[in-house]
Amino acid sequence: MRSTMQEAPLLVREILRHGAQVHGRSEVVTFEGDGFRRATFAEVAERAAKLANGLTGLGVRSGDRVGTFCFNHQEHVEAYLAVPSMGAVLHTLNVRLFPEQLRYVIDHAGDKVVICDAAVAGLLARVVGECPSVERIVVVGEGDTSPLEGLEGVGDLIAYDDLIRDQPGSHDWPDLDERDAAAMCYTSGTTGNPKGVAYSHRSTYLHSLASTSSATLGISSSDRVLVVVPQFHANAWGIPYSAWLSGADLIMPKQFLQAEPLVKIIEAERPTFAGAVPTIWNDVLRYAETHGSDLSSFRGIVCGGSAVPRSLMERFQELYDVPIVQAWGMTETSPLGAVAVPPRGVDDDEAWSYRTKAGRVVFGIEVRVVDGEGNPAPHDGRSVGEFEVRGPWVTACYQGDPSPDRFHDGWLRTGDVGTVDELGYLTITDRTKDVIKTGGEWISSVELENVLMGHPAVFEAAVVAIPDERWDERPLACVVLKEGVSATLEELAGFLADRVAKWWVPERWSFVGEVPKTSVGKFDKKVLRAEFAKGELKVVALPKGS
Ligand code: ADP
Q1: 228 alpha carbon – ligand 1 mean position (Å)
Q2: Is 471 among the residues known to form the active site?
Q3: What tens digit of pLDDT does each residue of 435-448 get?
Q4: Which residue has the CA at smallest separation from atom 19 of ligand 1?
């Protein structure tokens, strides 16, 4: 028997419509370095319509890709809403990609128009001349755009405000197939070329709803959300759409992502919620602690993208009574996959044991653990294997690149290794490419880093595998000490030995000025391994038998 229900396609257009009609008074606030720029959702929606009209005037048609090379700001939100709703495909470009990768992704996606911040015009100019698909460039904001001028095949630059100025303030948003692509994002391609994920309208709609659930981020009209995670990093984890549909204010920091301006924004705008990777919160905390800043406006902070150190969560809780909620996801999963909200009925201590896991699988996502032979293992919190996931906002392949090795019987292979318990909580011990195999056993680099970062003298720590004649591989700990404090090797090793298995404790250590980071702010262990291989790291060893 068929249902009696109406067929309403799940479109980004509906997210736009609802936010504009019902939450027209909510606002998008953009930090400009020396002050804030504000616009209501009603104004942003009108400008989104003008943008769609302007882009149509530039020849953008259904299915065409529109790239954005932008930080987080109002115009980027307008593009998020307008481009998919008009039937084109939003392709968010990572402003921190190496030129070669940037050229590759623009070319691979076939971007026709690129909306570019004037502040990063020079970065785009280095590659766009070699991207034949790009016909026009639209420039947002002020800055030196001369490197982009006069490039062959690209035509005259158009200022964003000029593009929309005389356009009608409404657009006839088309009916679309909900399975059509709405947006594209490339993984950062730590090995080989980046891989493209094309989100559908349907996946975006469902994913946007998921983040409003109290089992996940609980974004609601009571919130003012500071979106620190870049809009080019897995669609800022989908937060702009969730905020828009629920009427939460959006506070956008533009390129001002250092601790000092972020704290300034937090104290001035008093956001209730925010999302960013752990390295950002670590920097913010260090700054706030030394400047006596007030971060207490948050009801919560979502943090993920890499393991969140327990010490970071504890400090935020102690100093500001702000819970940092850990989440797990990937570009391939839109990205929301698991959120570490503790189960009901647990005491404080037990709650911490859940909060420090990667997360509890969210409704809509199914997860399994697969052993070395490709067989599903029990969800008992003990059986270790690679996580595989599936669900309506998980990619089924890569754009123009089937990569069969990344999929398994309709499941996405995540490349993350760990356990799932009876309640659906994921514990990640490593990424497959970062695991340390020593004498046939695995050591969790994530666990070692987490414990080390709990030492009062340690600011950051990354642990990588290095070759070892006897054991095959051993861990190398690369440690950044806090300013003005010291700790000896023996002290750090002893601290570890009290908390992890003795054979996990690294013999070799390197004190570094900074842990190298990827384009989205994660520890770049590949760089550390390469530096070690080239003899560029100053390595010290614990005396034998200590
Ligand atoms: P990239 O592969 O460029 O890092 P993603 O941002 O898509 O791009 O990264 C997804 C990966 O980030 C996951 O597969 C996982 O390894 C890691 N990750 C995300 N959240 C967490 C978390 N809470 N704990 C540990 N690792 C995480």
Answers
A1: 17
A2: no
A3: 898 888 889 999 99
A4: 305
